[in-house]
Design brief:
With 324 residues, this protein is of the alpha/beta class. It has helices at residues 24-32, 45-49, 53-57, 77-89, 104-107, 119-132, 152-161, 184-191, 209-219, 236-246, 255-273, 275-286, 297-303, 309-323; strands spanning 2-3, 6-7, 13-15, 38-39, 43-44, 68-73, 94-99, 137-142, 166-170, 200-203, 223-226. It folds into two domains: 2-246, Aldolase class I (TIM Barrel, Alpha-Beta Barrel); 255-323, Orthogonal Bundle (Non-ribosomal Peptide Synthetase Peptidyl Carrier Protein, Chain A), CATH 1.10.1200. It is built from 14 helices and eleven strands.
């Protein structure tokens, strides 16, 4: 598969951009487990043009992460163009525009999937960003705003016509949020539209290797993007790739393997963000690696409240000793 100049393997697997999840340390781990392409956390165009520290931090990428895209969101055309130019200076492999985020604080302002109510403006913002930068521009969006406005087939054509290099579609409307099942039939309709020439990447409810294989085989998508299923389970990329190549499932990771994974992630977080911030931001990840362990409540509480990095490592080692 190819996105503009970016060469990817056949049936590539993408890490979805997720706020407060896909930071540099988590991307490092996902790359180790086989993510073919990754994205940063999404970045506010308003934050970038105000030089907000948190937004600027998200532009920091590393060569070992490539190919990598930086995703921006917003609803003001001029701000989106300015933000795209600033992102280009950070030298990612591509710029992605977020027209898919459904959370209220973004969508109600008209950004993210809120833009699905204004398709003409959505297309115009995309056109202006494409014209403003030399990097490939891609888009991530949803099927529409609600059940009565699933506009994705026509919208995909319009986005292709203004020059995007690839399109990722989440198989829900904005009003669905993350409820119900993703509708892959409309993703397939876009992919199988004879007018469409750019790669189509499907997203939504990919939680198992079998579901990923079905997305490729049944709907013909060029790539699969995985989001929430990676949280606490970055090895899903390796599991899917193995299944696609062999038709066989890998055995689940042992508790000892999960401990080593959690420790590697923790060390990377400390390395990237320092002891205090690295530890605090790992709290949302640590316990997710051990979901389902019996009688884990007390250990989980210690993991997500401990302030000493060395003690966190000791707690993780104790998990191997007790449950391994």
């Amino acid at each position: 598969m190819r996105i503009a100049h970016i060469e990817l393997p056949e049936k590539p697997l993408f890490l979805a951009p997720m706020e407060d999840v896909t930071d540099a340390s988590f991307r490092y781990i996902c790359k180790q487990y086989g993510a073919d392409m990754m994205y940063t956390e999404f970045v506010s165009s308003d934050g970038l043009i105000r030089d907000a520290h948190k937004s600027l931090e998200k532009l920091i990428i590393h060569d070992y992460e490539r190919p990598i895209g930086i995703q921006i969101y917003g609803h003001i055309p001029e701000a989106m163009v300015d933000a795209a130019i600033r992102v280009e200076a950070a030298q990612p492999d591509l710029i992605d525009i977020n027209f898919g985020c459904p959370v209220n604080k973004i969508a109600r302002r008209g950004a993210g999937s809120g833009m699905m109510r204004e398709p003409d403006k959505l297309v115009e913002i995309t056109r202006r960003v494409v014209q403003a930068v030399k990097l490939p521009v891609t888009v991530k969006t949803r099927l529409g705003w609600d059940e009565d406005s699933k506009i994705i087939v026509e919208l995909a054509e319009r986005l292709q016509d203004v020059g995007i290099a690839a399109l990722t579609i989440h198989g829900r409307t904005r009003c669905q949020m993350y409820k119900g099942e993703a509708d892959w039939t409309l993703i397939g309709a876009v992919k199988n539209n004879p007018r469409m020439k750019i790669p189509i990447i499907g997203n939504g409810d990919i939680c198992t290797p079998q579901q990923a294989a079905d997305a490729f085989n049944r709907y013909g998508v060029d790539g699969v993007m995985i989001g929430r299923a990676t949280f606490g389970h970055p090895s899903i990329f390796r599991e899917i790739r193995h299944f696609l190549n062999t038709g066989e499932e890998l055995p689940p990771m042992s508790v000892n393997d999960l401990v080593e994974l959690a420790k590697a992630h923790f060390h990377k977080s400390i390395e990237v963000k320092g002891d205090r911030v690295g530890l605090l931001e790992m709290r949302r990840h640590l316990a997710t690696y051990f979901k389902g362990l019996p009688n884990f409540k007390e250990t989980r509480s210690r993991l997500v409240t401990e302030n000493d990095p060395a003690e966190v490592i000791r707690i993780l080692d104790s998990i191997s000793q007790i449950w391994g």
